[in-house]
Amino acid sequence: MVTAQTPTNIAVIKYWGKRDETLILPVNDSISVTLDPAHLCTTTTVAVSPSFDQDRMWLNGKEISLSGGRYQNCLREIRARACDVQDEEKGIKIAKKDWEKLHVHVASYNNFPTAAGLASSAAGFACLVFALAKLMNAKEDNSELSAIARQGSGSACRSLFGGFVKWNMGKAEDGSDSLAVQLVDEKHWDELVIIIAVVSSRQKETSSTTGMRDSVETSLLLEHRAKEVVPKRTKQMEEAIKNRDFGSFAQLACADSNQFHAVCLDTCPPIFYMNDTSHRIISCVEKWNRSEETPQVAYTFDAGPNAVLIAHNRKAATQLLQKLLFCFPPNSDADLDSYVIGDKSILKDAG
Ligand code: DP6
């Protein structure tokens, strides 16, 4: 039995669009920041026993079907890389060839409410692949494992590393070079504070998978974004991260989020992930950033209305919370569902 824990990640240069749906190969590179494992993470335990007669999985205590292609792809790829396991103390001996016949049971928990609209398959598939690899003694490094997690959910490949992570889209037809690499570790820029403002806890209407399929088929802006914009922007973002240049970082992250949502609007039929509250948060941050010498906060929105706000430092995070509490007073018509932050003392500082 093996237990692993994996945090979710938030893209600052978005992945949106696949060039191969089965292998999950993207149309552009993307860059993300991995959250602190203490918040928004998945814990997965995988177990093997000769008494198990089929592969089974429970998510937050409820059994789910493993028949979907994405789970099967991950299980098959890890089984193909399984090695001999021998633990004399525990009297365990499993030969490489036995893994083909043995079944696994998987129990996975999210430490955040699944219905909060934050549930991301990223942490889930990354954790599943990592735990299975450890159980089956696969020798692959995290980048190689990321290419397997990618086949569960694209964004999952970036959750195998901490810090800032780049998913190289790759060129190979078999997807062997479409994998994640760590740009810098979590210590490199540790004064950043990430606050998630939960605008709505409802499940999104259009899944990322369906949305990006429609965008690839119908949006001309997506083509322009993937070919002309993202290649340059990715290089600039890498520079900003290496130099801890928050001004450039915020400008690039906000522009990329806005362009991703513009692509959604350019899709036929159009996809609306953000709502009025999301737009008001953007206006609030933009106004504040423009009144300062350099931006204090970056915003980015995934396939839903919730805002991910990245503050330059603790002081900016405290000020941000004060502004949000002022603009969206709790228990008013405009209040937010909740704030998800790593450090409770910042919320206290903000009153
Ligand atoms: C907007 O990774 O959930 O969060 O590969 O179809 O499972 P599939 O999609 P998924 O898409 C994530 C889209 C995004 C941007 C990002 O994380 O880069």
List keywords for this structure.
351 residues, four-stranded antiparallel sheet, 23% strand, five-stranded mixed sheet, alpha+beta, binds ligand DP6
Mean pLDDT: 93
Instruction: Report the helical percentage.
Output: 25-40%
Largest sheet: 5 strands, mixed
Poorly predicted residue ranges: none
Total helices: the number is 9
Give me the count of strands.
17
Overall structural class, as computed from helix and strand content, comes to: alpha+beta
Can you describe this structure in just a few lines?
The chain has 351 residues and is α+β, with helices and mostly antiparallel strands. The chain has helices at residues 69-79, 121-135, 142-149, 208-218, 220-242, 246-265, 276-291, 314-327, 344-349; strands spanning 2-7, 9-13, 18-20, 25-26, 30-34, 41-49, 56-59, 62-64, 85-87, 92-94, 103-110, 164-167, 180-184, 193-198, 297-300, 307-311, 338-341. It has a five-stranded mixed sheet with strand order 1-6-11-7-8, with helices on one face. A four-stranded antiparallel sheet has the order 2-5-12-13. It has a four-stranded antiparallel sheet with strand order 15-16-14-17.
SSE arrangement:
Blueprint: E1 2-7, E2 9-13, E3 18-20, E4 25-26, E5 30-34, E6 41-49, E7 56-59, E8 62-64, H1 69-79, E9 85-87, E10 92-94, E11 103-110, H2 121-135, H3 142-149, E12 164-167, E13 180-184, E14 193-198, H4 208-218, H5 220-242, H6 246-265, H7 276-291, E15 297-300, E16 307-311, H8 314-327, E17 338-341, H9 344-349
Parallel strand pairs: 7-11
Antiparallel strand pairs: 1-6, 2-5, 3-4, 5-12, 6-11, 7-8, 9-10, 12-13, 14-16, 14-17, 15-16
Ligand DP6 binds at residues 11, 14-16, 24, 30, 121, 153-155, 208-209, 302-303.
